[in-house]
UniProtKB/TrEMBL annotation:
Domain of life: Bacteria
Record field: transmembrane: none
Positions of the Helix-turn-helix domain: 20-68
Protein name: Helix-turn-helix domain-containing protein
One Pfam family it belongs to: HTH_17
Basic residues bias locations: 96-106
Residue ranges, annotated region (Disordered): 66-106
């Protein structure tokens, strides 16, 4: 019986930090699509390092961010006594949200 060294795919590249993941690897771990993970990285929802056309992610850093309690957009993290910001209606379009933030009238 002969063994084919290329028949078995390696699960981990030697010398590579197992904490650093590609978009596809992180998507698999989170149960999301790669496109969703990229969108989250572009939006700043998860920490990512841009490498050429793709991103690299620290599994520990992503887990830490995802463990944080969810805050609504516009909610101040450090100022609990600040007056509430008027929130746009759910489902409002971009222009409606912008008008709500700036206080502009129709």
């Amino acid at each position: 019986m002969t063994t084919n060294p290329g028949a078995c795919a390696m699960t981990e590249t030697p010398g590579r930090d197992p904490d650093v993941l590609t978009t596809a690897e992180l998507a698999t771990k989170l149960g999301l699509s790669s496109q969703t993970v990229r969108r989250m990285a572009n939006a700043g929802q998860i920490p990512a390092l841009k490498t050429g056309k793709d991103f690299r992610y620290s599994w520990e850093a992503v887990r830490e961010v995802l463990r944080q309690p969810h805050r609504e957009p516009g909610e101040a993290a450090d100022e609990p006594d600040s007056p509430p910001t008027p929130q746009p209606k759910k489902g409002a379009g971009y222009r409606a949200q912008r008008r709500a933030r700036t206080g502009a009238q129709d």
